[in-house]
Write a structure and sequence with these properties.
InterPro entries: FIIND_dom. Pfam families: FIIND, UPA-FIIND. The chain has about 250 residues and is of the alpha+beta class. It folds into 2 domains: about 10-95, no CATH class; about 100-225, Sandwich (Immunoglobulin-like). The chain contains 4 helices and 19 strands. It has helices at about 15-20, 130-140, 220-240, 245-250; strands at about 10, 25-35, 45, 60-65, 65-70, 75, 80-85, 90-95, 100-115, 120-125, 145, 150-155, 160-165, 170-175, 175-180, 190-195, 200-205, 215, 220. A hairpin with a 5-residue loop joins strand 17 and strand 18 (about 215). The protein is elongated, with a radius of gyration of 21 Å.
Length: about 250
């Protein structure tokens, strides 16, 4: 940066006309829209999730005036693509379609539904360069469970989830799902496990189509996650009760 200044970004959609402009390439990460004083930023570092030779084919898409220009990187490290820029507008990583595995992450979100005596555990399979905080922002009513999440997954391949719980009464759906490169701003759960609210612990295992284990969690303590969820719910309820008159005034 040439001078001090605030840099803001948000993740926007790769809409259909942008995707058509990428062919034969495809998105290799989120599309970032930056906001900063003109000339403040001269170089950007984009996190990528490619493994081995795949990273050598990474390029950067620059979206301006409804058109997509492909920029060759200044350099590509094991974790980032570095590119020089002249103007701020949406930027995102691109890559020719490949069947090679990529670095991925398994994210867990938990929610107690005390009125139904049930709880939900959402499991997200995502590329490693999707910011966790962006997923958290979309699922604020769920408690994020911080656990080992890293694994290598192949795009467009089917994976099966196994759940081992202290309670035998649970429902897992779907049993298997195809791993896709999620580059949109919306991050939906890949799997959902519905459990008894009494379930204290689960262990999750992800298998490929040959039955080989590609990721497994340590024992996930749902009691701790549930306590955090209830504590947050209590704080919010207390705050709403305290400010109830203000809410009425705002909604009149």
């Amino acid at each position: 940066m040439k001078s001090k200044g605030e840099v803001l970004y948000r993740i926007v959609s790769w809409d259909s006309h942008l995707l058509n402009g990428l062919l034969p390439k495809e998105p290799a990460g989120p599309l970032y829209n930056f906001d900063s004083p003109e000339g403040c930023i001269r170089r950007l570092h984009f996190p990528h999730c490619e493994i081995g030779k795949g990273k050598a084919k990474l390029t950067v898409a620059h979206v301006a005036g409804g058109k997509v220009d492909i920029i060759q990187p200044l350099t590509v490290t094991d974790t980032h693509v570095i590119v020089n820029i002249q103007h701020l507008s949406p930027f995102g990583l691109t890559l020719p379609r490949t069947g090679s595995p990529i670095r991925a992450q398994v994210l867990l979100f938990y929610k107690r539904m005390t009125e139904h005596g049930k709880s939900k555990l959402h499991i997200h399979l995502l590329p490693a360069n999707v910011p966790v905080i962006e997923v958290q922002r979309q699922h604020k009513s769920y408690t994020y469970i911080d656990t080992t999440s890293s694994c290598d997954l192949k795009l467009e391949k089917k994976y099966k989830l196994l759940c081992n719980s202290t309670e035998t009464d649970y429902t897992l759906q779907p049993e298997a799902a195809i791993f896709c490169r999620e580059c949109s701003p919306n991050y939906h759960p890949t799997f959902e496990v519905q459990l008894s609210i009494e379930a204290a612990e689960v262990t999750l295992t992800l298998l490929d189509r040959k039955g080989k284990e590609v990721w497994t969690s340590p024992p996930v303590l749902l009691t701790d996650a549930g306590a955090a969820s209830l504590q947050l719910e209590g704080v919010l309820t207390s705050w709403i009760n305290t400010n109830q008159s203000s809410f009425r005034n705002l909604n009149q």
